[in-house]
Amino acid sequence: MSQTTTNLPVVVIGAGPAGLAAAAHLEDRSLDFLVLEAGPHAGAAPRDWAHVRLFSRWDEVVDPAAEKLLAPTGWVKPDAASYPTGGDWAELYLQPLADILGDRVRFGARVTGVSRTGRDRIVDADRDAQPFVIHVEHADGLEERVFARAVIDASGTWSTPSPAGAGGLHALGEKAAADRIAYRVPDLKDPAVRARYAGKRTAIIGSGASAFTALAHLADLARTDDGTGTHATWILRRGISGSTFGGGEADQLPARGALGLAAKAAVDGGYADAVTGFRTDAIERDADGRLVLIGEDGRRLDPVDEVIVLTGFRPDLSFLDELRLGLDERLQAPLALAPLIDPNQHSCGTVYPHGQAELSHPEKDVYLVGMKSYGRAPTFLAMTGYEQVRSIAAHLAGDQEAAERVELTLPETGVCGGAGLFDQPETTEQSGGGCCAAPATLTIGAPATSGGC
Ligand SMILES: Cc1cc2nc3c(=O)[nH]c(=O)nc-3n(C[C@H](O)[C@H](O)[C@H](O)COP(=O)(O)OP(=O)(O)OC[C@H]3O[C@@H](n4cnc5c(N)ncnc54)[C@H](O)[C@@H]3O)c2cc1C
């Protein structure tokens, strides 16, 4: 570290689970830090999906260093074995944590650019010795420049969902049909949202945990008096196989396995039809204003009233453009991390814990952590992010031994062939390959095949 950067803080972008855990670990290491959060509260993303219950238990989503900070404040730790909703996670854990950190967490502070002071990405001269300069836009419109010795980008991927188009771009007509398309699991407890989907036909595009949740919620709606006639068309890019519904009872996170089983029950119960091998190319309105999905192979599906696109997320790298990042060309994840999480290679959904070494870039002292570190890979778990930031804080404090140590064992999904975990980008077009034997074919209506890797 140079003389010019020694006294500067570490800037953390985002006050979500990973960003606040980073702050807690930096605090634990007595390192100066500043968290810049675009939203008005901690946990802006989980607050957006406040109605969705996590498949992780409370004890799997509380960071150890954060708990160490919270414990002496009279914080009441939620029941370790129960499952929070996104709203619980934000209000019962993330907000109290941010409150303890005080004015070192600034809300309404959106980062719009990060660079080396006086050095654009081309300039080599004395580059590592220059402090980072962070461009911030405040909610009141004021602009600010903040200087930092290191940057931990924990800004997530929630605000950049993938579109419906199979090529990764918007389908023809997708933007024009925006009034009928949602990119998140609807909150059917909200009367206005409930009315939007009750008794309607809805296409759900995607094959990860969010798609499972949406299928299960719409089936629940169909089973109620006000939801009679609610029906889902489930659009999958690949075929249905033993891994389509996740690991079921073989999943080491039982609630995650149960999501797939609930989706399967929705299909088996006749509340949803699956359309397989369908790559969305265009979305048209018919004469009645309903939406018709058209596949790349020319197939036209029966009209639906609504479309829910749950095809995964992608990182917003625009504000990091002046930095020298080493990112994998497929996943947009750090180069050393990508092979560990690539769903093309890791069909068991098993992800190895990793830290500072795998997360470093050609640009020294910059880290992408949390959900954003996975780029487009679907398997991120909060506890992975906590381990990442523990290792990075140790490295920044000069404790290389702790930075290199692995202090985490991750649960396996029980999925063999097809990552089948989160909001799937469906990169694993064929369901065989990877670290397990090829999966058995699953017939809709037959019991789920389970079994670990
Ligand atoms: C529906 C859903 C369910 C999930 N369930 C689980 C689960 O059960 N178990 C599990 O382990 N994981 C789960 N995850 C995955 C993951 O743990 C969460 O997505 C988690 O919120 C990721 O934390 P994060 O801190 O990396 O990102 P986020 O929570 O997205 O936080 C990023 C923060 O950065 C802020 N931000 C963004 N851009 C900027 C900017 N330019 N400047 C300043 N601030 C910015 C955002 O406002 C946000 O507050 C789930 C994810 C989703 C979407």
Brief account:
With 453 residues, the protein is of the alpha/beta class. The protein contains 11 helices and 15 strands.
Can you characterise this structure?
Helix 1 packs parallel to helix 4, helix 1 packs parallel to helix 10 and helix 6 crosses helix 7. This protein starts with 9 loop residues before the first strand and ends in a 49-residue tail after the last helix. The strands form four sheets. The protein has a five-stranded parallel β-sheet with strand order 3-2-1-7-15. The chain has a five-stranded parallel β-sheet with strand order 8-14-9-10-11. The chain has 453 residues and is an alpha/beta fold. Bound molecules: flavin-adenine dinucleotide. The site of flavin-adenine dinucleotide has 34 residues, from helix 1, helix 2, strand 4 and helix 10.
Radius of gyration using CA atoms only: 22 Å
- SSE topology string: EHEHHHEEEEEEHEHEHEEEEHHEHH
- Shape designation: globular
Cα(first) to Cα(last) distance is 45 Å
Structural class: alpha/beta
User: What percent strand?
Assistant: 15-25%
Number of helices: 11
Strand order of the largest sheet: 3-2-1-7-15
Main pleated sheet: 5 strands, parallel
Q: What small ligands are held by the chains?
A: flavin-adenine dinucleotide
Mean pLDDT: 88
The residue ranges in which pLDDT falls below 50 over 5 or more consecutive positions are 416-422, 426-453
- What oligomerization state is this entry in? single chain
Helical content band: 10-25%
Tally of DSSP β-strands: 15
